Each structure stands twice: as C-alpha cells, then as structure tokens.
Amino acid sequence: xxxxxxxxxxxxxxxxxxxxxxxxxxxxxxxxxxxxxxxxxxxxxxxxxxxxxxxxxxxxxxxxxxxxxxxxxxxxxxxxxxxxxxxxxxxxxxxxxxxxxxxxxxxxxxxxxxxxxxxxxxxxxxxxxxxxxxxxxxxxxxxxxxxxxxxxxxxxxxxxxxxxxxxxxxxxxxxxxxxxxxxxxxxxxxxxxxxxxxxxxxxxxxxxxxxxxxxxxxxxxxxxxxxxxxxxxxxxxxxxxxxxxxxxxxxxxxxxxxxxxxxxxxxxxxxxxxxxxxxxxxxxxxxxxxxxxxxxxxxxxxxxxxxxxxxxxxxxxxxxxxxxxxxxxxxxxxxxxxxxxxxxxxxxxxxxxxxxxxxxxxxxxxxxxxxxxxxxxxxxxxxxxxxxxxxxxxxxxxxxxxxxxxxxxxxxxxxxxxxxxxxxxxxxxxxxxxxxxxxxxxxxxxxxxxxxxxxxxxxxxxxxxxxxxxxxxxxxxxxxxxxxxxxxxxxxxxxxxxxxxxxxxxxxxxxxxxxxxxxxxxxxxxxxxxxxxxxxxxxxxxxxxxxxxxxxxxxxxxxxxxxxxxxxxxxxxxxxxxxxxxxxxxxxxxxxxxxxxxxxxxxxxxxxxxxxxxxxxxxxxxxxxxxxxxxxxxxxxxxxxxxxxxxxxxxxxxxxxxxxxxxxxxxxxxxxxxxx
Amino acid sequence: xxxxxxxxxxxxxxxxxxxxxxxxxxxxxxxxxxxxxxxxxxxxxxxxxxxxxxxxxxxxxxxxxxxxxxxxxxxxxxxxxxxxxxxxxxxxxxxxxxxxxxxxxxxxxxxxxxxxxxxxxxxxxxxxxxxxxxxxxxxxxxxxxxxxxxxxxxxxxxxxxxxxxxxxxxxxxxxxxxxxxxxxxxxxxxxxxxxxxxxxxxxxxxxxxxxxxxxxxxxxxxxxxxxxxxxxxxxxxxxxxxxxxxxxxxxxxxxxxxxxxxxxxxxxxxxxxxxxxxxxxxxxxxxxxxxxxxxxxxxxxxxxxxxxxxxxxxxxx
Lengths: 676, 317
Description:
By secondary structure, chain A is an alpha/beta fold.
C-alpha cells in the first residue's frame, strides 16, 4: 500500500524464509475448573502458508477458540495454560517470547477480529480512538499521521464519511459497521496474519456476506494470511482454502476445502455436512443428526472420542486412531478413513411442502400493524399491513433480517404487545386488535418456544417444577393430584426425548439441546393448539439443531400442532415450513408455498437473501454471487415507496413513489414488487 | 444539555417543597416548646402570661397554615428567617458553619477516593491473591468501624504520639491552606476511611467484571500495554457505577458529620443541629434542613451530569 509511506514499516529482522507463516505444533491447552483439569486442546498441529485462508471448524467446546487464544497468548491467566507444544510464527516460537515481545506481535504482526462486535469495542471510547490505538502501540506516529491512517483504514473497510465516524461511539454504529471497525483495527499495522474468531456470527446474512467478501478481498489484495474460526460450514466452503475439523480438543480431519467437501473422510465431518440443511439440494425428509453429546473433557477418554456418537463404529475404535495421512495433505483420525462410507446425499427426498387449502385456518393476521411512538415525529413502523394465514396442523415460516418485524408479530400473537391496527384471529375468533384486552385463558391455546432458552428458564426451578407449573396454573388437567401431575411431567419428558431422571435437574445442569427440549415440554404442558417458535434453534450447534428440528416436526405430526416459525436461517425455515413469508422492514415482500418459494424466488430481496447464504458445498463457490449492497435502513425513517428500493438491484424511479402491494404473481405465489 | 439542566433545576422545586412540608409538620408534632426552654430553662418562675406574650411575639400562637405561609413567603425571597433563640438571621448562623462542614465533607471525599481508587483497582487486578484478601479485610473493617470511633482513635493517637491537638479555629482553605488542613485533615480521615471502604469494594467488584469483558481482550489483542489496558480501557468503564455510589455516599457523609464534628469539637453544621434541636429552635432547624436538602439535590444533579460525561451512551435532552 503506497499510502502507508509516512509510517515506518520496519519489521523485526526477517527470519530465514520459512514456507509456513504460522505453524502450530503439538499444542495442548488445559483449563483449571471446579471439575478438575479440562484438556480443551489436545496435541493439535496446523500450519498457515503466506496468503492462505485456513478455517478451524467445530462445534462449541471443541477447542477451536482456545487454540487461537493460545497462539495469541490471551488465555485467561488464572485458569488457562499451554502445557505442551510450539507456535512458530515467522521463525520464532511465540510461546517463548517475553511478554513485551509478545505485545509487539499482538496487533503489530498478527491482528485479531472477534465475534460480538458490540461487546468487543469499548463502549466509552470513540471509534477513532480505538482504531488509532494499535498505531500508537506499535508505530512511532504523530497524532496527525495516526488520524490519516485511521481514515484510510475506514475507507479500506468500506465505511464512508470516516471523519464523522471517528468521533462516534460504538453504540452509534450498526452491527455490520462495528464489525468493519474491528477489521480496520486488526489491519492498522499491516499484519502478516489475521485470526478471525466467528467474525460474522452475530450478523444478518446479507451483512455477513458483505463482511466475508470484504475480508477475502482484503487478504487477497494485501497478501495477508487469514485464519477463520467458525461453526458455519457454509462459510468454510465458500471462502477457505484449507480446513481443520476439530472435535473434543482434537483435530479429526484436515485437508483442502475442495477435497473434504467432495469426499469427507471422517464420520464427524460427514455428520456436520449432512446436519446442515442445504439450500441448493432438494429438501430431504428428515435432517441427518449426530445423536448424543460431545464427551466431558474433564474425564479421561479412551479410544476414539467420536466413537460413542458414530454410526460407523467398529471394534477397533476402542483404541484412538492416529491422524491417517491419505495423501494430498488430507488427514483423517479414523480407522475407516480409507473405506467408502457411501454417498453423502443418500437421504430420502422430502414430500413437497405446501399449504393445504382444505384445512381450516388455525391463526390469521389481517392488515396487522404495529407502530411504536417514541416521541414527537418519531414512530417506529415495526409492522405494516401484514396479512397471512396458518393452516391448522401446518407451519408458516416468517423469515427476515433483524428489524424486519418478525419478532414483533410473534409478540402480538402471544398478546405480549397489542397491535395498533388490524387484528389477529385464532380459529376465527379475534384475539388481538387495538381495543382487545389480554385474555389469560388464551395462553392455554397459544404457547411459545424462545431462542435463548437458558435465560427463559428460571434457574432456581427444577425441570419438574418448570414443566408442572403451567399444568397447575392453568388447571389443564381435571386431576391435579401430585401423582397425576408427575405422570404428566414424565409423559412430556418422554415426548420431548428427555430421560425420566432429568426431572430433578436444574437448567444449568443441562446442555443447550436438552434445555430447548425442556422449553418445548414446558410449552406442550399447556396442551396448546398453536405454538410460536421464535428462533428455536439459532443458539444451538448444528448437530443439535437437527435433533430439535426433527423433534418439532414429529410433534406437529403426532399432536396436530400449528406453528408460527420465526427465524433468520432460510435453510431451517425451508425444512420445517409449509408456507413462508419473507419480511423486510415491517412488510411482507413475498409469500408462497415453501417449495415454490425456494425453487423460484420472485422478489429481488428473497433472491438476495438466498444468494447471501453460504451453503456447505464446494461447488457453490463457483456460483456468481451478487452480494447485496448497503445496510438495512432504520425503521424510524424507512424509505418512501418500496422499503427495499435503497438496496434493490432492480429499483427504478417509480419505486420511490409507489408502495407495492402483495399481489399474486404466479399461482399461489405473492410478491410485493412493481418490477415483476 | 442546557435544557436538561434547567429541567432538573425546575424539578428541584417540588422536591424541596416536599422537604419543607415534612420538616415543618415534623417539628410541630414533636413535643417541646422553645419559649418554655428559653425562659424557664434555668428554673426561673416566669408567669404563663409572659410566656404567652413571647409566643405571640414569635408568632407561635397563630394557625399552622399561617406560620407555614409566612415561612414559605420568606423562602421565596431567599430569606430563611431569624433564629428564635439568638434572634440572628438563620442564613448568618448557617453560613460559616456550612462552609466548615462542606470543607470536611469534600476533604473526606478526596481522602476516600485517593485511597479507594488504587486500592480497589489493585484488588481487582490480582483477584483472590494475598493482596486482595488483605484489602478486602481492610475495607471490611472500614465498613465496620463507625467514623466517630475512628475519630476518637485518631485523637488518642495524636495525643499519645505527638502530644498535640489542632486548635479548633476554622479558616477556609483559600485563606490559609496549611492551617485549614492541619485542623480538618483528621476528621476528614476519620470520615473518609469509611467512605474509601465503600468505594473500594464497589470499584473492586465492577473492575473484576470489566476486566472480563470482550473489549479488554480486544485491547490486549491490539498489543496495548497492560498499564494502558487498565487506565484507558477498564478504569473509565469501572468508574461508571462507582460514580453513582460516590454521589450517594457524599449525601450520607454530610449526615454522618454530626457526630464526627462533636468528637473533634468543630463548630460546624452538626454542632449547630444539635444545639437547635435541644432548643427547639424551629426556624433554624427548618432552615438547616432546607440547606442540606438543597446540597443533596445539587449533588445528585452533579453526579448525573458527570455520569453523562463519562458515559457517551447517555445523552440527556
């Protein structure tokens, strides 16, 4: 970069040219916990060549983040410790550097980008201050030079109006912009390597696509190496060169992305790839899942760590397999790595999913509107003129990015917020309208499963108490003797796939998937006909996500439940819904039967959303993806005419004046757009 | 911002009015009669007629609503009335003593913060270390020891080791800082010790929380020195809840001075309060309550404004 000229770029004397920029060798990390020592990372080795994009993939607790923190020597001092291994970077072992030398590496030669951009930026210091800080830490620059460089960095990461942004604070920026700021900070001193820990997990899909394109672009252009830590296989397939799959502290499979996605050689990798519903493939009838839970790392483990959950287990698995080199730098820690385990796409293709017009309507929304008045001339138009119907025993999926109003609709259905216009009908009876009062008895019929189960379960109540409470409060059963209630609790536990002894546990003693099952059992305790599912799987690991989706599917068929399924993940919505409504800034952009919508999306926003989702398939990389530009406008001042026009590739001048109505464009397929 | 301050100042009026009604009624409900104390206090046989005349002169025989109205009328003109005992204007009686008490209070706060900030941060930087435990025990004792007891210990120590006590003549700090400090540093220490304990404990716990935040990790990942991580990243965030506590404690501190001033034999508000109470000097007591209430409300406003300066997420309008 020529504009860097005023800043002295003197790096420490270059070491003898090594082929690898970073080489992690036999790294072992232990954490001290109340349950003893946990070996979170166990004998892990991987390399990064100059200019390469390497992905570390795995589910929560697999040790991928701990590996990165160990490389940066940012493990929590009191509890975390590297007990073995080397981290060679540019010819030096980072683990042997003095604290001051290591400080020079951090932010100077290796940049870090974290997830949760809001939490990762200091709330009380200005953006400019925080971007200039690494320059003051590592370079001998004047305030004016640092400012100039910061402005240059902001432009580099696609933030316009840099001078104004510098004076602002993190809470003034959108999530995507905060992530751009974090990237600018990591780039400040021209590092040779950037480690990004779940860089897009908290972002909307269209923004995620923008950030990932930006990062790939930057590393290619500036010749930087990138390590991406992620649980999202779609991101890996679309952006990385090489990948390492981690499970329970170990690398179980390594290789080029192309090779692993076309022929995964470890059952866990196979499981991961097939657990994620794939938008480009036909919808399969049931999601593949990996049953069970990862092992407890505080206990000694013998044999293959994945064996207890593995469908290809054999006797040999009682001894832990070594990383088997299969050639082309493809390694797999499996005794059966050289066998053909069958095609990945063996699952049965799903029955077509469409709304059944013959069924009565379970729930309907008519011209629903919700405005929040914040003050004089300040109104948030959260929901505007939304109508839909949910057929009895079927699912309506409500998708959209943050601020589209999907959660507000869920809250109105649950009577937690009153509409300011229109009405909601449950089996033909109006349950929510501007003038209706909340009716307690309705909660027996309409229930909810929340996204963040942990915070929605009372930590001081046992599972038994949590499930029994609604039975008692709503007098669901005639016989409320304790034996009858206990029998019902056990029945609900069995129904949701929980063991009888779970009744005595408390929420913190359960895994994420088990908690969500308790959340579902609690909702079912009311014996409702209708359930609002508000992002029920988005906080879960992919292998667990599949289990919960299959459970919800089974329950619908067994109990005839109707669902309103609110989610941002299109693949999951496609899997569970019969009819789908795509929302943007409070309005429905497109509504159609599930299969029709995904096979032939009509509205430009639906198409943009579908393009933005990375799918776990290497072939998808070749797809010419058009990343949709810009940010979601504030619902305080939505654009005139069509709300999507500011980001729409098809927008014409009329779009600013005409508010498009939801019209039937094809049989059963409605879209709100004047251009189609 | 200016509009916000004006709004807050306007909101002071109902608050102070409430305080005025409360203190006025409370004093009338409590038994005791200044005329009785003033004229018959030394056992003199004064006739009921004379007492009645004196009551008339002080206006105590008139209906309560009239007395209240007259007092309110005075307040509107910023006239607190005249002491029923000394007949001097209340503002004069309070003036010099308020000056002394505010001196002690502000000094105590400074002493408290000077101790609390480093001590609280150190404990947070090395949690569960020997140092942390020592600091936690020290601050616990600071909470447990009442400030008048601390004051007595200080006096005893001064007498025992220096065989010296400051002469209790007060000069404002802007006239003679040395004389002022030699007198007031001791009560300030006695009161400030407790103050520092409260603030240090608060600072320690918020700082421990803040040091676990993601943005601290980000700062380290940028290669920021540990020193700057603490002073530039952790401290401004940890100070936010601490500022609130400092404000609340400052208000308490003024109340707590009553006993400490007694111990150090200082002629401050506290002493005046005790005298006025024993004399049943209604007008003086009412005046003092109004002054203290005003100080409290203003302190609150200052704390809120300071908070908005420290925390850019809060903007008053």
